[in-house]
Amino acid sequence: MPSWCWSILLALALSGCATMRSYEGELGASLQQASLGNVDGAIQRLEASNRTPAKDVLYYFELGMLQRLGRRYAESEKAWLTAQGIIEARESSTLAAGTDALLAASSYVLSDRMRTYEVHDYEKVMLLTYIALDHLAMGRYDDARVAIKQTHELEARIADRRAQQIAAVEADAKKRGAMVNFKELNGYPVEVLDNPEVNALKNSYQSALSHYLAGFIYESLGEPSLAAPGYRLANELQPNQPALEEALRGLDERVSAPPNDGMTDVLFIVASGAAPVLKAQQFMFPVMADYRTVLIPVSFPVLVPSATDDEPTGLVVGGAQRLTLTPIASIDLMARRGLKDDLPGIMLRAAIRSTASAVLQVQAQRNSNSNAAPAVGLAVALASALLQTADDRTWRTLPAEIFIARARLPPGVHVVSVQTRLGENTARVDISGRYAVIDFRVLSRQLYVEAPKAAGQ
User: Is 68 exposed, middle or buried (0-12, 13-18, 19+ CB in 10 A)?
Assistant: First the structure.
């Protein structure tokens, strides 16, 4: 067998396992345990899929969320701060090298599934948002203020980086004559990514939840001048929602109200489901070879919309007071918009790898003899599959949909019912202080309750 063929087989032996793993197969087991209320079992499944000493950023994403479901807030915070450190270190390295990880030459050679995981923009913002919620759970409102402020700075950096990426991909695609419009990809489920709901989003990373939460935190700390911009941007990102409009309109009245009126301003956050699944699906992709168009089977990521059976339909306090739930963030839609924005770059890299695959096949035909031909053919086929494997990784333990409700309630224990299409779940929550955040998470028929301490408690 030719030496180059042995090189291919060696590369497959070293990296094939990472390519053939199914991320959904691994995380689906953890989510199943969590939906049964078995958080420890969910974490054990996660650990079983990540036995190597060096853990990637996704491991810490998932671990932090599962620990949060188990009310292990300090451990959750530690996991997420580790993830944040990994992200910041990679961004610093990228800036120092003057290159973008998605546009580096190596990203064109290896399949997306083999590369170091490139954190989606919405995941970066949601990471900081949930770090802020962990701080709130431990009564550290000042620390929550720091984390939520970082989301604003992060969004500005993402906007600049996105503009540079789009320009670079467009220029490179034009120079190479590569197809980067997913609507031209025969058989791709265009309607999942190109529809009025997805197109209504300004981008994939700005979350009305993050900005509303910023407004609430600033308001609770007596900073109405900073709270107003948070509420205002939440209204812009999620327009025509009376509850969001009222938060901004009634800000001055709430802040100037007597501090000892015996009531607590409660923000209920109700998150449901899990982030949508990414799966690798094969399509016939046209590339140029020998001055003609050749169709090559290439795997591209396809997003499977989240199930909605556990989506909340109502929130009742004390068996009588029904609160209106307002949709404020959809990770499902943000993920779709993110994939829509990422596909031109994914298709450009696929086009370059497909051309390399075509050249590899030509070389195999030229260098093989009758005895080595079967082995050479196998090596080429495996190498082509390795080069063209789509990335199915994404932060799966994030919720699919997030709603809020707000009410002024007397301090003390309250019975709160969360109603879904699958039924009703009831929890007792202890409310205290002038402001409080109660965070619910519904997974199938399981209700998790995060009832943070009051500010300064």
Answer: buried
CA distance 27 to 24: 5
Domain ranges in the chain?
Answer: 3-450
456 pLDDT above the threshold of 50: no
Give the integer Cα–Cα distance in Å for 284 and 299: 9
| CA distances for 190 relative to 147, 186, 299, 389, 393, angstroms | 36, 10, 16, 20, 20
Q: Which two tokens stand for residue 366?
A: 């030229």
Q: Which amino acid, residue 251?
A: L
Gap between the Cα atoms of 161 and 180, Å rounded: 19
Q: Per-residue pLDDT averaged across 356-379, rounded?
A: 59
Backbone φ and ψ for 407, nearest 5 degrees, come out as -155, 155
DSSP string computed for 259-283? TTSS-EEEEEEEEES-PPEEEEEEE
pTM for the model stands at 0.89
- d(CA 457, CA 448) in angstroms, rounded, equals 22
Among residues 331, 382, 330, 391, the alpha carbon closest in space to that of 357 is found at 382
Give strand ranges (E) for 167-320: 264-272, 277-289, 292-304, 312-317
How far is Cα 315 from Cα 420, in angstroms, rounded to an integer?
9
2: exposed, middle or buried (C-beta count within 10 Å: 0-12, 13-18, 19+)?
middle
Q: What is the DSSP annotation of 369-432?
A: -TTTHHHHHHHHHHHHHHHTPPP----TTS-SEEEEEEEEE-SEEEEEEEEETTEEEEEEEEE-
Whether the pLDDT of residue 437 is over 50: the answer is yes
CA–CA distance, 428 with 296 (Å, rounded to integer)? 58
CATH number of 3-450: 1.25.40.10
